[in-house]
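To assess whether ligand presence alters the predicted conformation, the chain was also submitted together with zinc ion. Input:
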Amino acid sequence: MTESHRPTVLRAAAAWTGEGGPVFPAIGRKVELHIEAGRITWLGREGERPAPPAAILQDLGDAWLLPGFIDAHLHLWGLDLSDPSALWNWPMAYRAARAVADLGRMLEEGVTAVRCLGGPLGPSLARAVQEGVVRGPHIVAAGEFICSRAGTWDHAAFPQHWVESLGMYADGADACRQRVRERIRQGADFIKVGGSVGEHTDALRPWGNDPARLRLSYSDGELAVLVEEAHRNGLRVASHAIGDEAVRQALECGVDTIEHGHGISDETARRMADRGALLVPTLSLPALRVRHPVKHVAEGWQRHRDAQRASLQLALRHGVRIAAGTDFVGPPGSPLGPSMMELELLVEAGLTPEQALVAGTAGGAEALGMQHRIGRLAEGFEADMVALPGDPRADIGLVRQVRFVMKGGEVVRG
Ligand SMILES: [Zn+2]
């Protein structure tokens, strides 16, 4: 029996066990978790139940235990974007090696599961982690984006031949259906579609980079076919949807998770709640990009930040389910790793610390479709957890002071 498969007894001063679960405050007698074969088999107070035979005891002192954090929106690209041509010039093998290093770093930061929202490496990295070939968070991956010509990620600034080579274009209903089938063959866990168009390089276009004026990538018919084909195959659909029209179209067509989702009306927020769609607001990337040295680019990101805050208020008012996601890609402007700054930004935007913690645990688990396995400290759930030096409900900034990480019963840090 290897060390990682030996039963473990974990003790800590206190625990926040996740949405709807008990809180064990620091009251003298320690909280205790029993872990066998990578799963939590029991949790309660120290001394209430005998330890499993031959268990390893690990005492985390005055720490608070929490479920491992989940980043529900990032891109495992293995890139450093300080080289702007890296996207089309760096060999894929080099990018894969870098992405593996990124995964290790994220795990050390306490991120025990991620959803990769587009990029060629995701499905292979997910397989390598699942097989234990490399160490990293659980990965749920979309594979390459699906997008129309002149759509969300078809920027005029990119070399045409390179964009063609990605296999992301789908124009017309038949091509949409075909792309979904290709993704399934490539091992995608879900489908990522570009629902709205507009970014800072579109400054001179009528839609510019204004969240209120973005145009739709797809006709209703095309998007409906994409969703129908994905759902028929048991895959969920995530849409990059900014602006009221795009979010509303996504909801009408049955999209499951709304990525970004800002620039919406009160009525659209209500519909999102009614339909049970999950919102991933991605506050981290714009929060970093507003520091961009080019003035009109920084101003564009600030417009998005303002719209994000306003839309999140509407979503909260209607009880929309929220998952935390960073949209991080790689350094310097979107460093993979400090994912849980997203929780601080959610609190700054109006969530309570408890709501933000739920967004970064159970909300994320739901976005990944893994809500029955991860996102809570509960019997039968995977032993994915972090320890912090205090109660993050009193100080959300503590989520960035992770001092212990466990994934699947194996100690990663601490
Ligand atoms: Zn993204």
